[in-house]
Design a protein that fits this description.
Layout: H1 5-11, E1 16-22, H2 27-33, E2 39-45, E3 50-54, H3 59-65, E4 68-71, H4 77-84, H5 87-91, H6 109-114
Parallel strand pairs: 3-4
Antiparallel strand pairs: 1-2, 2-3
Length: 121
């Protein structure tokens, strides 16, 4: 079925797709790429062009996908996380962590209990 993606996307007038793998095994990422990428973003157009942005530790799996690929550091992801905060911190996820620039004095007692963090600029 994976080899039918381009045809199916054209038939359904879908211009492209984006698949996210965030911190865990993603069946959708495995289906789209054929590799167990745990942390990455896969872009694919209906014309078959694809690009995978991946964690540097997964470069061998990314190369096995067979499309263009690059690592998150090439796109400044760490700088963006430092500037904007971690996604889990904003969503109140269980493994939220404060921005490296915030201190315990920056967070209110209630935000410490909920797992959110306050970043200073």
């Amino acid at each position: 079925m994976r080899r039918d993606l381009d045809r199916l996307m054209r038939e359904r007038d879908i211009a492209g797709m984006v698949v996210f793998a965030h911190d865990r095994y993603s069946p959708a990422m495995y289906y789209a790429t054929g590799q167990k990428i745990h942390y990455g973003i896969y872009f694919r157009g209906a014309d078959g062009r694809a690009h995978l942005i991946h964690d540097p530790m997964e470069r061998d799996q990314a190369a096995a996908v067979g499309c263009e690929h690059s690592g998150f550091p090439q796109h400044g992801l760490n700088r963006l996380i430092d500037a904007e905060g971690h996604l889990r911190a904003r969503s109140g996820g269980s493994s939220a962590r404060p921005s490296p620039r915030s201190t315990s004095a920056d967070a209110s007692p209630s935000s410490a209990r909920t797992g959110s963090a306050t970043a200073t600029r």
